[in-house]
């Protein structure tokens, strides 16, 4: 990638605070300017008694499915608090999406099931290992109020499915209103050329956080999203220029800026 690729481009990055730094570095290495505006906050639920009990009995499961990189991070921290390592997990490990796969492998989980193409529940369900799961105990490690498609399909195939909801998503609580007010009042001054969002929740929050007339101006800015679901939401909100990245991986999001 040429260092001139993003010259004169200002990219609004809405990733959670703890996940934005590497993406911002890639943008600035490519000659652009990253403007950090977290529109979502990940709040841990790892101290929840049900979560603690589930992880204490983790090796009773035949398969663990991580639905996001945040689920991986929270699971790793729960195991660390129990003086256990990801390598101690005896169950098969499955993941949805390249970003989740990368996070799981970096954390030390031995991933054995991942889609090669497609980065959603349907792509994972199509994998050969997911067909014969009758009487298998499967644990979905996910955020609170996640999609039910995966669990419903696995139960139809005869699996026994439990949840470990290890985090929830929220509008950033550290924002007193000043930051969003500043962005709303000075949107034109920032010269934002592109917006990167990595989930439906962060996109909806961004839309709700901005005040008029900045909200209307935002809808004309090039938007990069990671999924068809996010494209659908963006259209419904009124965004005019939308690019779907291959996945939520940082490099895939950067690549989509040029399409």
Detailed description of the structure:
- By secondary structure, the protein is of the alpha/beta class.
- It folds into two domains: 10-40 and 172-256, Rossmann fold; 43-170, Rossmann fold, CATH 3.40.50.10090.
- Helix content is 38%, strand content 20%.
- The protein has twelve helices and eleven strands.
- It has helices spanning 20-29, 49-56, 69-81, 98-107, 121-125, 149-156, 178-185, 187-190, 200-209, 214-218, 228-237, 250-256, and strands at 10-13, 33-36, 41-44, 63-66, 92-95, 111-113, 137-143, 160-170, 194-196, 222-225, 242-244.
- The strands form two sheets. Strands 3-8-7-4-5-6 form a six-stranded mixed β-sheet.
- Strand 5 (92-95), helix 4 and strand 6 (111-113) form a beta-alpha-beta unit.
- It is elongated and about 55 Å long.
Question: How would you summarize this macromolecular structure in one to three sentences?
Answer:
The protein has 259 residues and is an alpha/beta fold. It is 38% helix and 20% strand.
Question: Do you know the CATH architecture of the largest domain?
Answer: 3-Layer(aba) Sandwich
Q: What portion of the residues fall into strands of 2 or more residues?
A: 15-25%
Helix content: 25-40%
Radius of gyration: 19 Å
The tally of structural domains comes to 2
Uncertain parts: none
Describe the biggest sheet? Answer: 6 strands, mixed
Strand order in the largest sheet: 3-8-7-4-5-6
Overall mean pLDDT stands at: 89
Structural class: alpha/beta
Shape: elongated
Could you tell me how far the N terminus lies from the C terminus, measured between alpha carbons in angstroms?
14 Å
- The CATH topology of the largest domain: Rossmann fold
Helix/strand order: EHEEHEHEHEHEHEHHEHHEHEH
Number of strands: 11
CATH class of the largest domain: Alpha Beta
Question: Number of helical runs?
Answer: 12
């Amino acid at each position: 990638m040429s260092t001139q690729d993003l010259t004169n481009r200002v990219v609004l990055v809405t990733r959670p605070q703890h996940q934005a730094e590497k993406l911002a570095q890639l943008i600035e290495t490519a000659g652009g300017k990253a403007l950090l505006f977290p529109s979502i906050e990940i709040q841990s639920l790892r101290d929840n008694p049900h979560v603690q009990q589930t992880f204490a009995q983790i090796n009773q499961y035949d398969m663990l499915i991580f639905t996001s990189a945040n689920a991986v991070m929270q699971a790793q921290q729960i195991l660390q608090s129990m003086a256990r390592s990801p390598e101690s997990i005896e169950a098969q490990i499955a993941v949805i999406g390249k970003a989740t796969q990368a996070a799981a492998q970096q954390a030390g989980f031995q991933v054995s099931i991942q889609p090669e193409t497609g980065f959603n529940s349907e792509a994972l369900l199509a994998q050969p290992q997911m067909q014969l799961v009758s009487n298998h105990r499967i644990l979905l490690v996910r955020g609170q109020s996640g999609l039910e498609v995966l669990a419903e399909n696995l139960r139809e195939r005869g699996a026994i499915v439990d949840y470990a909801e290890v985090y929830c998503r929220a509008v950033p609580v550290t924002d007193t209103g000043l930051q969003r007010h500043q962005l709303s009042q000075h949107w034109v001054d920032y010269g934002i050329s592109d917006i990167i969002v990595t989930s439906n929740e962060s996109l909806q929050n961004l839309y709700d956080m901005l005040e008029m007339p900045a909200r209307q101006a935002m809808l004309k800015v090039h938007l990069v999203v990671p999924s068809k679901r996010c494209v659908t939401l963006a259209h419904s909100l009124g965004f005019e220029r939308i690019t779907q990245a291959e996945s939520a991986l940082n490099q895939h999001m950067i690549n989509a800026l040029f399409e």
